[in-house]
Amino acid sequence: MNDIPISVISGIIGLLLAASFSAILFRRIKFPYTIGLVLVGILLFVLGDQIRMLKVMQHIHLTPNIILYILLPTLIFDAAIHIDSRLLLKNLTPVLTLAAPGLVLATAVTGLIIAWLTPLSIGSAMLFGALISATDPVAVIALFKELGAPRRLTMLVDGESLFNDATAIVAFNIVMGIVAGGAWSAGVLASSALNFVVVFAGGTLVGAIIGYLMILIIRMAGNDPLIEIAFSTVVAYAAFILANYYMELSGVMAAVGAGMVVNYYSSTRLTPEVRQYLHQFWGYASFVANSFIFLLLGLTETYLARDLGSIPRLLGYVAAAVFAIMASRALIVFLLVPLLNRLPRAEPIDWKNQAVMFWGGLRGALPIGLAVSLAWDFPGRSLIIQLTLGVVLFTLLVQGTTIKWLMTRLKMNKPTLVDRIARLTALEAAFQGGLHRIDAVEKRFWQPAEENLQKLREQYRAAIDSTMRELNETRNSPSNIDRVRRTTLWLQANAVERKANVLLFEQGFLSENTFREMDYRTEVRRGLILKGEIPPPHVPSNPVMLRVRVLTTSLFERLLPNAAWTQLRIVRDRVIKLELAGAVRMSGNAVLAELPRFAPLCGASESMTEECRSHYQSTAHQALEQTQALAREYPVIFHDLQDRIVRRAALIAERDTVAKLQQDNAIPGTVAQGILNDLETQLDKASVYKSPFQ
Predict the structure, then answer these.
(1) Phi/psi at 236 (nearest 5 deg)?
(2) How far apart are CA 553 and CA 575, in angstroms?
(3) I need a surface site. Which of 91, 264, 275, 440 has the fewest CB within 10 A?
(4) H-helix segments, 270-350
(5) Are 131 and 371 in contact (CB under 8 A)?
């Protein structure tokens, strides 16, 4: 039995160490971290000839299986569980258009140009076009976060990459099959198009099923973050391997499907603590995977370049490849996006966003992995690898290092006036909180030196004065400041409303379906507020599951009116109506209670505050009238629901009291834990909505 050499293990640890130090260095010098890692990888390879300890680095490089089955599932699953599903759905048309038809168009254009300008045959050129068309926005997204780029731009770039990795792999395999068959007939192309849809959609379905099974199984873990993180790891890799290796479907789309399902249900099925652990774990896993990818890119580029021969001899062909990918990228962005802007109800993507999307189309590890996976006797293999290396290096070292300059020139790195006011408001509140805490700590724990205490207080007061001065200047400088203040006030009210809904759900007073409905409404209203529609109009119910539920109930009422399942369904729908009305009332009252606190911080005038107050008073009153009407119509259901709510509220009070006693060391920890376990069991049984809806 051959064991793993210690030198390989040492090399892997060395890469992680290099990545960690590089992260510190590049953050301090404000250089793109991922691009810097490519340079570090090249340097490590070169130093391998000079330093014996680094010799092992010359034998570590990217391979197809390392990319496809180790690194890619981590990156795809992490992106899927962190992506804003609402924003993705809102921009799904441009994202899918760029990722699927756009990538196919880019493949064709790139292939034709390469076949024209290089010695590669049309088949080999098309294969190169397929593998090089997948974008890798890791470096760009990191820069977007640093600059505070618009959320929609981040979604468009990130979403396109999330899907076009799958498209590129599927297109690569299809073109490979066509090249092996030696035919480019219309029938073959039609069959390939059908196969593309099956592989793409089939992978998504497989991943979604595996993700949902994990959500069902994860309940048995009892909110143990270690077990649930272990399950999520299994799901990410199981979905990818099952779809890609065993079922010959898209493993990337399987990981996307699994991650999106986990993302969708984690907000309601997992506790906030577990969600935090989950995101931290996958954030770390993504950091490690990205670090290894870009370090190995540098090592692999140098390794393959030395192995294949002199790059200067092929500079002309590399320039042709760069021209081809730039031309194809310009075509799909500046042709397809304007066409999408013309669609009904489309939210236009302006020319500035288009310019950043064009220049931000970097290439990464996937093209190299696909190129290296070609058989040794494949026609033009060496040239394909050389072209791939040249394109990847150009996009990373040229486009990746100049995207910040482009965004600065386009003035896309400046936060909006509303964001600036929100930031200053938050800072002022934070400084006030720090100042108050100083006095509290002094009274409860110790008596620090008066001069030190006074100095600290003065620092906080100076920070508060400076922040308030900047806040007042920002509020009073623009001509449309009243609109900004009004918008800020309503955004804050919307945030309080959503926070109230989250608290109601976490305490068990809102069912999962109703919470999603309320969360959907607040998110839509937030978008309307940002567009200037104040007060935001009523948002009708929209989630598909809610519509399906109503349709199903109506159908069964007609076909099987006396069936037990139909009657149960009817009761459930009546409870939903009561629950929605109650949630609207309680969240509205929460806003009214908080309004006197946040209205002055927003700089709102009395008339603005009164407008907001009147709106939420009216909303809460209408919800109360609706609740009373439903109570008169369904008295048995209403009183039963009311009894369960009161019972649960009492149990929550018991639990919080015992937890406080334990925190204050008033009772032994073992005694407190025993009581808390009993109360959690009672709370689970006394769940107001769990039985009907989950």
Answers:
(1) -60, -45
(2) 13
(3) 440
(4) 272-308, 315-331, 337-341
(5) yes
Kindly state the DSSP code that residue 246 receives in the 8-state scheme: I
Report the alpha-carbon distance of residue 240 to residue 257 in Å, rounded: 10
Q: CB count, 10 Å around CB of 688?
A: 23
141 contacts 189 by C-beta, under 8 angstroms: no
Tokens of residue 333, six digits: 């962005």
Question: For residue 244, what are the contacts with CB-CB under 8 A and spacing of at least 6?
Answer: 68, 69, 203, 250, 251, 252, 254
Give the pTM.
0.76
Q: Give the tokens for residue 460.
A: 């906080």
Query: How is 343-355 classified by DSSP, letter by letter?
Result: STT-----HHHHH
CB 419 within 8 A of CB 476: no
Amino acid of residue 3: D
- Locate 622 and state its tokens: 């209408």
Q: What are phi and psi of 185, to 5 degrees?
A: -75, 165
Structure tokens at 85: 């599903």
* pLDDT, tens digit (0-9, with 9 covering 90-100), for 389-415: 888 888 888 888 888 888 888 877 666
CB atoms within 10 A of CB 590: 21
Q: How confident is the model at residue 693 (pLDDT cuts 50, 70, 90)?
A: very low
Distance of CA 572 to CAs 153, 495, 546, 549, 577, Å?
Answer: 41, 29, 12, 10, 9
- Only one residue has tokens 């399987």, namely 254
Alpha-carbon torsion (294, 296, 302, 306), positive or negative = negative
Max Cα–Cα distance, the chain, nearest Å: 87
Other residues' Cβ atoms within 10 Å of the Cβ of residue 253: 31
Conformation bin of residue 25: beta by default, left when phi > 0, alpha when psi is -120 to 50: alpha
| C-beta of residue 336 within 8 angstroms of C-beta of residue 96 | no
- Of 607, 608, 371, nearest to 492 (Cα)? 608
Stretch 425-439: mean pLDDT: 79
